[in-house]
Amino acid sequence: METRNETLQEELSLKLFVVLTRTFESIKKRVEADIKCLGLNTTEFAVLELIYSKGEQPIQKIGEKVLIASSSITYVVDKLEEKGLLKRKPCPTDRRITYATITEEGTAFMDEVFPTHKKSIEEICAGLDMDEKKMMIEQLKKLGFYADKLK
């Protein structure tokens, strides 16, 4: 037989899940709208931002870094290449590896739009003060690591 505490734990866990999901959807909707104004979708922006911030990346590894399916990466890189923002570069030592690297046009584009994007993210998260943000980051990491261990 379930105790009152177990029932409360279940109810709180369900409520937490619903609140996290709704919060994420609200934030995601706002970020998607901001990115759409730039002429990119969120996946394209995520790939471009990764390479802008971290430098050239093996195309095969991009998916795991920006949390998108590896089957979509080629399509996204193709689109960014068509827009002149990225280019492919073969690895000089391993023919199986191709890098995605940002173009001068891509760098200029990100230099222009990224500060505005960061400001937009800051505005979205302005509902929490600095200490609350730090606490939220730690708690969400803890929850995420725990959930990963359950696999």
TrEMBL record:
Keyword Nuclease: no
Gene3D superfamilies recorded: Winged helix-like DNA-binding domain superfamily/Winged helix DNA-binding domain (1.10.10.10)
Domain called HTH marR-type: residue spans: 13-145
Residue ranges of the TM segments: none
UniProt cross-references to InterPro entries, sorted A to Z: HTH_MarR-typ, MarR/SlyA-like, Tscrpt_reg_MarR-type_CS, WH-like_DNA-bd_sf, WH_DNA-bd_sf
One Pfam family from the record: MarR
This protein's UniProt keywords: DNA-binding, Transcription, Transcription regulation
Name this polypeptide is given: MarR family winged helix-turn-helix transcriptional regulator
Organism per entry: Sporosarcina contaminans
Lineage of the organism: Bacteria, Bacillati, Bacillota, Bacilli, Bacillales
